[in-house]
Amino acid sequence: MIDFHAHILPEMDDGSSSPEESAAMLTAMAEQGVTSVVATPHFYPDSEDPGAFLTRRAAALKRLRGVWRPGMPRVYLGAEVAFYTGISRSAALPSLCTVGTEMILVEMPFLRWSASVLAELDSLRTERGLLVTVAHIERYADMQPRGIERELADSGVLLQANASYYLSRHTARQALRLYAAGLTPLLGSDAHNMTSRPPTLGDAAALLRERAPRQFVRFTLFSEVLLRQAEPVIG
Ligand SMILES: [Fe+2]
User: Fold this and answer.
1) Higher pLDDT, 28 or 225
2) pLDDT value of residue 224
3) Ligand 1 centre and the CA of 127: distance in Å?
4) 2-6 sheet: strands from edge to edge
5) Which of 11, 16, 140, 227 is the most exposed place for a label (fewest CB within 10 A)?
6) Residue 156: which CATH number?
7) CA angle, 192 as apex, 138 and 230 as ends, to 5°?
8) How many whole angstroms from 83 Cα to the centroid of ligand 1?
9) How do strand 36-39 and strand 74-77 relate by DSSP bridges?
10) 115: CA distance to ligand 1 center in Å?
11) pTM tops 0.70, yes or no
């Protein structure tokens, strides 16, 4: 099982606060059946240029390597890139994709998306040729027109949903409805630490296996394919 969204790099963003906490997160993930994890630290283009971000990310990865042990999930390297006007023209886009792939995890604005925002998201795919994944799709749903998930999926955008979406009793039915509608978001823990936002992908996967078995099988087959071209940076 792949965790497509996790803040496991130590002292990189508001995620893991130390190499020890990162190791604890990876251990918890392994115990839950996660075999691969994409490290997706926040990249905020307003506050940092891509070069500085990549330098910091490389340093954090080095520290993670120091505590990684066999049995922990393989680590792939990516980013959670905050959307901004002009993103589709950025020369840095390839370096913000999951290393070895053309897959980019985009955190969308937390407001109703205008036609130009959606058009620019589309440009990432059509003009830049990227495999666009919208991070934690459930977090924007209330601000968007009904059916936005299908609209995005039908246009070739991948959706990612957080484990908490499946595990909260307030949203679990809504999450399963996506599967019933044939939409299969990639799973991400969006884990930030071992306290307030720990890894919980195992429980979300268990719920899917029980309540949405066929869709889940399709989803897992598909998601393995996504990282086939990628080389793990650890493991
Ligand atoms: Fe995140």
Assistant:
1) 28
2) 87
3) 26
4) 2-6, 36-39, 74-77
5) 11
6) 3.20.20.140
7) 80
8) 13
9) parallel
10) 24
11) yes
